[in-house]
């Protein structure tokens, strides 16, 4: 059958005859109208000038008889179903309108893909939540977050920035992808100030967001990024940023996923810091911040068993009168002042603790007794100085007892402390404001 006969032109489908070279030798009116080209402008041209195969086609491409999906060469939202039939040395293509079907199938594919991504991301969020619960340190948690976000977005790398306890900010996991061109505080500020996920798809987008970001991205070879703040109950912990060295766009689920991962990480960070505060409170004195008696005895046991040491038992002279005359707040200020003076007088590595009430203990590793004498005299001199809080109107002085446990001593920590305590009472009985050494 010739495709330019009246019967062929009356068919509600397209008919196109192709030579072996792929050139069109004949076409009917339906095809001419569908491609928007007159018949005399179609013959002699390649079919590829009018129809192209759809990407991600649900049917096989140009193999076999079909059917397969092809799109209008210029208007890719218009589609046809094409089947191939052999007619002698030529091929005859039967072409039927399929734009609505194609759009429906495309939408279905998109929905399936979205559902698959949603399931995968939900599994990632659940797995990450479990992993966060096992993290015992902030560094470990940051490493989990960096790994999870890099996998979630298929990023080349992710970096986690955290505010430290001392107020500074630093990288907790990952590396500085911008090579030091922007500091941690600036990068955290991208998301912590607006408290929202930020998506950057090119360096121009980055420069619009923050001066210097675009140029830093370009210099570092970063093509895109996504960043989210780590905040929980009005506390800002920092941010994570996933970096891409390739072109990247983000779907509608990118921001909610980032919020979920960042929110879980921030909650886990809050828990870790609460646990750290509770652990610190259990082993440190609230007034002075020094180790308490429990931590002193634990750490001192290790020191006594390992090396020679001197124990200084310090009791403030006349402290009760400070509380009685000016109140406990004044007494607490004095205790805090004493703690600072003791820390000033010891060496790095020496242990200073509040034993209870107005009693303090200093543990020093020593190689010979003369070192203990030097440290004790320096501490007594510091304590005799003028008080830093004159509202107490009370000069500081102390009675100090010193006990030495030589290397290889069989004494336990409790015994050494007891000997230093007894020496302190001898110093106080002798009038206070002096040093007494334990008797062998």
TrEMBL record:
This is GGDEF domain-containing protein. InterPro entries: Biofilm_reg_signaling (IPR052155), GAF (IPR003018), GAF-like_dom_sf (IPR029016), GGDEF_dom (IPR000160), Nucleotide_cyclase (IPR029787), PAS-like_dom_sf (IPR035965), Rev_trsase/Diguanyl_cyclase (IPR043128). It holds the Pfam family GGDEF. CDD domains: GGDEF (cd01949). It comes from the Bacteria. PANTHER family: BIOFILM ARCHITECTURE MAINTENANCE PROTEIN MBAA, DIGUANYLATE CYCLASE DGCP. Residues 307-440 form the GGDEF domain.
């Amino acid at each position: 059958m010739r495709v330019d006969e009246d019967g062929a032109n009356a068919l509600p489908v397209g008919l196109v005859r192709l030579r072996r070279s792929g050139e069109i030798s004949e076409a009917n009116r339906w095809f001419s109208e569908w491609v928007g080209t007159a018949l005399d402008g179609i013959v002699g041209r390649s079919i590829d000038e009018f129809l192209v195969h759809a990407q991600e086609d649900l049917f096989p491409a140009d193999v076999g008889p079909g059917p397969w999906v092809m799109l209008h060469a210029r208007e890719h939202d218009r589609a046809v179903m094409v089947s191939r039939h052999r007619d002698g040395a030529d091929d005859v293509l039967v072409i039927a309108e399929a734009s609505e079907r194609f759009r429906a199938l495309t939408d279905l594919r998109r929905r399936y893909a979205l559902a698959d991504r949603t399931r995968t991301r939900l599994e990632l969020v659940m797995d990450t939540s479990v992993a966060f619960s096992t993290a015992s340190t902030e560094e470990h948690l940051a490493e989990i977050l960096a790994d999870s976000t890099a996998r979630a977005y298929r990023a080349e790398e992710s970096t986690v920035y955290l505010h430290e306890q001392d107020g500074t900010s630093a990288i907790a996991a990952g590396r500085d992808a911008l090579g030091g061109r922007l500091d941690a505080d600036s990068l955290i500020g991208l998301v912590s100030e607006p408290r929202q996920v930020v998506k950057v798809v090119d360096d121009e987008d980055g420069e619009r967001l923050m001066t210097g970001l675009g140029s830093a991205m370009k210099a570092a070879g970063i093509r895109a990024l996504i960043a989210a703040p780590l905040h929980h109950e009005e506390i800002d912990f920092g941010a994570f940023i996933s970096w891409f060295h390739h072109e990247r766009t983000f779907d509608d689920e990118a921001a909610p996923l980032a919020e979920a991962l960042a929110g879980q990480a921030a909650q886990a960070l809050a828990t870790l810091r609460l646990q750290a505060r509770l652990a610190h409170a259990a082993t440190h004195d609230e007034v002075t911040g020094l180790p308490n008696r429990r931590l002193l005895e634990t750490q001192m046991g290790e020191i006594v068993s390992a090396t020679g040491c001197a124990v200084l038992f310090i009791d403030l002279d006349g402290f009760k009168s400070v509380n009685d005359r000016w109140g406990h707040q004044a007494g607490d200020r004095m205790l805090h002042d004493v703690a600072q003076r003791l820390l000033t007088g010891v060496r790095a590595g020496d242990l200073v603790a509040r034993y209870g009430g107005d009693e303090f203990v200093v543990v020093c590793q020593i190689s010979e007794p003369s070192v203990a004498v030097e440290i004790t005299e320096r501490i007594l001199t510091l304590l005799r100085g003028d008080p830093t809080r004159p509202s107490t109107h009370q000069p500081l002085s102390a009675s100090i007892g010193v006990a030495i446990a030589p290397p290889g001593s069989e004494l336990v920590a409790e015994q050494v402390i007891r000997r230093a305590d007894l020496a302190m009472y001898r110093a106080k009985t002798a009038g206070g404001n002096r040093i007494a050494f334990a008797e062998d």
